[in-house]
UniProtKB/TrEMBL annotation:
Membrane topology value: Lipid-anchor
UniProt xrefs under InterPro entries: Lipoprotein_NlpA
Lineage: Bacteria, Pseudomonadati, Pseudomonadota, Alphaproteobacteria, Rhodobacterales
CDD domains: PBP2_lipoprotein_IlpA_like
Assigned protein family: Belongs to the NlpA lipoprotein family.
Organism: Falsirhodobacter algicola
Keyword Ribonucleoprotein: no
GO CC annotation: membrane
Protein name: MetQ/NlpA family lipoprotein
Length: 258
């Protein structure tokens, strides 16, 4: 059965239809992978064939992009990218914003933040940007106070006040959903929550404010940002069809940036 696409595709998408281009885009599991599959459907009639490649952690997609194994990735927010560029020397650049996914606090045993006992163990990501983000969420919730001047990358050494004497278990972000039986609560990125079967809206006991600096981006190698396929990829992602898919599927737990 032939699928008919509405005539709302941008002119740059249509202009690319005459010359087919094959690219690989790295994503993390969950919403980033699911959305990119929809993007691929929109881009294909214009001649941009997207092979969606899933990676199970946050480090490999940037290495794969830097090595030329993929042409773009879509899984990370700007603070994480900035930290990767600084620490690993990647020559990578963001070319478009995508979505924001508020981090959630989850627990197998507790139904509210107020139920956290003194001395509770909290699981947080072990990478600097997402670990810092988790601590900022706990501060937002009134559970801790961080020292001034720590910016977006505080660590557990930067606690100024910890009235509940919370303890922290730092784990790979992808492993945090599995850690829930072993901790009192864990701060989990939305993509890993969704991939593990958690519903951010109904299963979290608290959510990060939507007003946060962690907007996700499409990233390419420096020098590729003006390639025609990059604009095709952006136009397909920022299409009305993809926006409607996100709003319908995620019911407010994933927010579009355009």
């Amino acid at each position: 059965m032939m699928r008919l696409f509405p005539l709302t595709l941008s002119l740059s998408l249509m202009a690319g239809a005459a010359m087919a281009e094959d690219i690989k885009v790295g994503v993390s599991p969950g919403e980033h992978a699911e959305i990119m599959e929809e993007v691929a459907k929109i881009a294909a009639p214009a001649g941009l064939n997207i092979d969606v490649v899933e990676f199970s952690d946050y480090v490999v997609p940037n290495q794969a992009l830097a090595d030329g194994d993929i042409q773009a990735n879509s899984f990370q927010h700007v603070p994480y990218l900035d930290n990767q560029v600084k620490d690993r020397g990647f020559d990578l650049v963001p070319v478009a914003t995508t979505i924001t996914t508020p981090m959630g606090l989850y627990s197998d045993d507790l139904s509210s933040v107020e139920d956290l006992p003194d001395g509770a163990t909290i699981g947080i990501p072990n990478d600097p940007t997402n670990g810092g983000r988790a601590l900022l969420v706990l501060q937002q919730l009134g559970l801790i106070t961080l020292a001034e001047g720590t910016g977006l990358t505080p660590t557990v050494l930067d606690l100024a006040e910890n009235p509940k004497n919370l303890r922290f278990r730092e784990l790979d972000a992808a492993q945090l959903p599995r850690s829930l039986p072993d901790v009192d609560a864990a701060l989990i990125n939305t993509n890993y929550a969704i991939a593990s079967g958690l519903n951010p809206r109904t299963d979290s006991i608290a959510m990060e404010s939507a007003d946060n600096p962690y907007v996700n981006v499409i990233v390419v190698r420096n020098g590729d940002q003006d390639a025609p396929w990059v604009q095709q990829l952006i136009d397909a992602y920022h299409s009305d069809e993809v926006k409607a898919f996100i709003e319908e599927k995620y019911d407010g737990t994933v927010l579009t940036s355009w």
